[in-house]
From TrEMBL:
Residues 214-464 form the Glycosyl transferase CAP10 domain. This is OLC1v1027408C3. The keyword Transmembrane helix applies. Keywords: Membrane, Transmembrane, Transmembrane helix. InterPro entries: CAP10 (IPR006598), O-Glucosyltr/Glycosyltrsf_90 (IPR051091). PANTHER family: KDEL LYS-ASP-GLU-LEU CONTAINING - RELATED, OS04G0534100 PROTEIN. The chain crosses the membrane at residues 41-61.
Length: 542
């Protein structure tokens, strides 16, 4: 994949020259300051007798701050399992009742390679709430954005999904994933750009560790490129009534049937030093505490790569100059320079220092959206054309301020003036967006989203998946044990340490046509309202 096609980058910035392996000297100082305090005192405590009759040694880790980057391998989750500490069945029962977190480190003691995954040290089933799992009604309901899962799978609701439909999605897929009895088999067709496929697969493997025995057998095609490709017009109102091929990817739009799935950045993006979301979201939360909205710069900030899209080049015209001030401060990202400086300038948490932040698409969605919305600033959202798995639930004036695509500078100028005059309301919108991102989009929910979209997808399959002839088994060991550098660190930081103590949230029902209509209407009328305010403002100004 060509560099200039790469788009889902923080602040939409280009990644030129950043996909080479990191020189160690850049890495180390960078890591030294970003290592979270972490456990190392591993007390081997439990041994749980599970249904298979096998013993699994587990560890309880506390939180003492002795974790020190790469050097901890011996004490980290990558440790080979050595000591066993047997407890009696009655002790086990006590531990179960207290809902102690069970940690099961990776077994790196054998030289694990692709297709050679440890057989059975990890439980194949785990029910955290033994013996009485909570009923459907007692489970917390997933956030509203989960409701779009039904919409994404709607094209197959009557036909189901046949193997030939899946095969038809191969045309653009980077890989095919088959899950059988909780184990993953992957056939790679084409390596993706950077580590997108690696961290996407890593995320799926963590889902399997998190919910052992709960992910149904399935067979899917995944495309790691930015743009959705399954065009509705090729399938709707056609005489042959053919069904679209089901294809997973990171984003979609109103003209396509691609099924959206969380992007790789939730587990980390080593090429540009974006940490796993679990840690990064905490940094952002912390950053928000450091600077209150009123103390922030009263301008709209954007930093990214302008050359990927005409609309971004347009945005540069809104920058402050000797002759004009649209209230915007926009910067072109220079990744070469930032890499040399150890990415100090691109540290996302320290970019939350403006009252307003601009989000503008590249040539498709950008992973920067969550980082921008999480800032407690008012997000000025330039009209978007793509969605990812959570953005369809964002509402104008509730989560963001809508900015017109074709008249950006005037739109931004008005937004900034409005916010500086209506500070309470502007802050409230910023905080609502941050809460949405930091709470409803926390990793627990990202995993549950994956759980539900995969489970619903699997229900539609009309055949029993089998291991494709060219597939290899993939497991966390095969990926993390041989990995190095930042990749290894991000895997270590984002691993599912053991089976989750809770079962997934319950999937809310689809939006019926009526409520769907209400949402669309409401969005449009709010955007029109802003448009009216804007017109009024410019009439009075000129
Ligand atoms: C086994 O557990 C006990 C009590 O939890 C602990 O004192 C002991 O050090 C453990 N033994 C090993 C080998 O980890
Ligand atoms: C680690 O994996 C190897 C190979 O599957 C296996 O023989 C060994 O028992 C495993 N170690 C533990 C502690 O489960
Ligand atoms: C926008 O203006 C600021 C302040 O003058 C300047 O530092 C920055 O480089 C400008 N951005 C671009 C993309 O020219």
């Amino acid at each position: 994949m060509k560099m200039d096609q790469e788009l889902g980058k923080p602040n939409g910035s280009s990644c030129q020259n950043t996909h080479k392996p990191f020189p160690e000297k850049i890495l180390l100082p960078m890591l030294a300051k970003s290592i979270p305090g972490r456990s190392s005192v591993a007390v081997l405590l439990l041994l749980i007798l599970l249904c298979s009759g096998a013993f699994f040694s587990t560890r309880l880790l506390d939180s003492s701050p002795s974790f020190n980057g790469f050097h901890l391998q011996h004490q980290s989750i990558f440790s080979p399992l050595k000591s066993h500490n047997f407890t009696s069945p009655s002790d086990n029962a006590v531990v179960q009742k207290q809902k102690k977190v069970v940690e099961i480190p990776l077994n790196c003691s054998i030289g694990v390679t692709k297709g050679n995954c440890p057989a059975n040290y990890y439980p194949s089933k785990y029910s955290p709430e033994n013996p009485d799992p909570p009923s459907e009604e007692e489970r917390p309901t997933c956030p509203d954005y989960f409701r779009w899962i039904h919409d994404d799978l709607w094209p197959w609701r009557e036909t189901g999904i046949t193997e030939s439909m899946v095969q038809a999605a191969r045309r653009t897929a980077n890989f095919r994933l088959v899950i059988l009895n909780g184990r993953a088999y992957v056939e790679t067709y084409q390596k993706s750009f950077q580590s997108r496929d690696t961290f996407t697969l890593w995320g799926i493997l963590q889902l399997l560790r998190r919910y052992p025995g709960q992910i149904p057998d399935l067979d899917l095609m995944f495309d790691c490129v930015d743009w959705p490709v399954v065009k509705k017009r090729d399938f709707i109102d056609r005489p042959d009534h053919s069904t679209p091929p089901p294809l997973f990817r990171y984003c979609g739009n109103d003209d396509t049937f691609d099924i959206v799935f969380p992007d790789w950045s939730f587990w980390g993006w080593p090429e540009i030093n974006i940490k796993p979301w679990e840690q990064l979201s905490e940094d952002l939360r912390e950053g928000n505490r450091r600077s209150t909205w009123v103390d922030r710069e009263p301008y709209a900030f954007w930093k990214g790569n302008p050359i990927v899209a005409k609309t971004r080049e347009d945005l540069l015209k809104c920058n402050v100059s000797d002759t004009q001030d649209w209230g915007a401060r926009v910067y072109a990202q220079d990744w070469n320079k930032e890499q040399q400086q150890g990415y100090k300038q691109s540290d996302l948490a320290s970019q939350c220092i403006h009252r307003y932040k601009i989000y503008i698409e590249g040539s498709a969605w950008s992973v920067s959206e969550k980082y921008i919305l999480a800032c407690n600033s008012l997000t000025l959202l330039v009209k978007t054309h793509y969605y990812d798995f959570f953005t369809r639930s964002l509402m104008p004036l509730q989560h963001y301020w809508p900015v017109k695509d074709e008249d950006k500078c005037r739109s931004i100028k008005h937004a900034v003036e409005w916010g500086n005059k209506n500070q309470e309301k502007a802050q409230e919108i910023g905080q609502t967006a941050s809460r949405f991102i930091l709470d409803e989009l926390k990793m627990d929910n990202v995993y549950d989203y994956m759980f539900h979209v995969l489970s619903e997808y699997a229900k539609l399959l009309k055949y029993k998946p089998t291991i494709p002839p060219n597939a290899v088994e993939l497991c966390s060991e095969a990926m993390a044990c041989p990995a190095g550098g930042l990749e290894k660190k991000f895997m270590e930081d984002s691993i599912a340490r053991g089976p989750n103590t809770n079962i997934p949230c319950s999937l809310p029902p689809p939006y019926g046509p009526a409520s769907f209509h209400i949402i669309t209407e409401k969005t449009e009328s709010l955007i029109e309202e802003v448009d009216r305010l804007e017109k009024q403002y410019w009439n009075n100004t000129s």
